[in-house]
Write a structure and sequence with these properties.
182 residues, alpha+beta, Aminopeptidase, nine-stranded mixed sheet, 4 helices
Length: 182
């Protein structure tokens, strides 16, 4: 499966994929949003304008029809004062789910992050899904979640490096502060 960097012309198609992927969850989380869009769409829009946006880590999976099947992004985050990455949102259009698109995107963005020399990537997600990519509970590495209620769902993937991974409180890029649970 081909995975490539997002191009400037992909932004609207990526936004549509994120909206479609998270729409089923929006009704139970925040049905009264004035724009009716999933919070992940707003988050993505805000991340694009944030200094933490890293274009080289915004990746897409092209669809066979020429559209976009999925998208993943890692943005600049910190553990204490040490720069690290936060993964998300990860989105696959419902028409392309359960075909390995999400897995291919995660493998690609982790490979790119490691190649760039990043010490670790953190995310909030299902351990049953993300453990296959080497993610472990953040506490195993002394990384503290921004919200204690996240418990086992806050995970990190540490890359092999000569220096030990940073320890301390994790902080996502600023736009995540406006997302409940993110």
């Amino acid at each position: 499966m081909l995975i490539r960097r997002e191009n400037p012309g992909d932004a609207e198609a990526v936004r549509a994929v994120v909206a479609a992927a998270f729409a089923p969850y929006q009704a139970t989380r925040d049905p009264g949003r004035p724009d009716g869009l999933p919070v992940e769409v707003t988050l993505l829009d805000e991340l694009r304008g944030d200094p933490g946006w890293l274009p080289e880590l915004s990746l897409v999976a092209p669809a066979p029809d020429g559209g976009i099947a999925g998208h993943v992004v890692c943005t600049r985050a910190h553990v204490g004062a040490v720069p690290v990455l936060g993964l998300g949102p990860l989105a696959v259009h419902p028409a392309h789910q359960r075909r390995g698109v999400g897995s291919a995107l995660v493998h690609a963005v982790l490979g790119a992050a490691e190649a760039l020399g990043e010490p670790l990537v953190a995310l909030l997600g299902d351990p049953a899904y993300y453990s296959r990519f080497g993610f472990e509970h953040s506490q195993a590495y002394g990384v503290t979640a921004p919200e204690p209620k996240w418990g086992k769902f806050f995970q990190v993937r540490v890359f092999d490096r000569p220096a030990p991974p940073p320890r301390g409180l994790f902080a996502y890029a600023e736009p995540f502060s406006g997302v409940d649970g993110g």
